Amino acid sequence: MKKQKILLIVMIILSVWSFYGYLIRKISLLEKENKGIAKNIKNLEKEKNDKLYEYDSLMDLSKIEKEMNSKKNMAISGDINFFRIKKDSL
Prior knowledge:
By secondary structure, the chain is mainly α. The protein is 78% helix and 0% strand.
């Protein structure tokens, strides 16, 4: 009778311990997967923000160009150098 109680307690402890180990492994696998997904989402958000910034800058330039052409009869020239580097400073 005493041996049966001890055996029952040992079986309960072993079953709880093995179930706990199973849950720990499952959780760690899910956390690894979650980190990969979070990294992917972060990269996609960076790409989206870059594309939005580029799109907004292009839209603003085209809007300014249309306004200059229509209201002030100005044209954009490709011959103007805005930045020059002096060869002496290199």
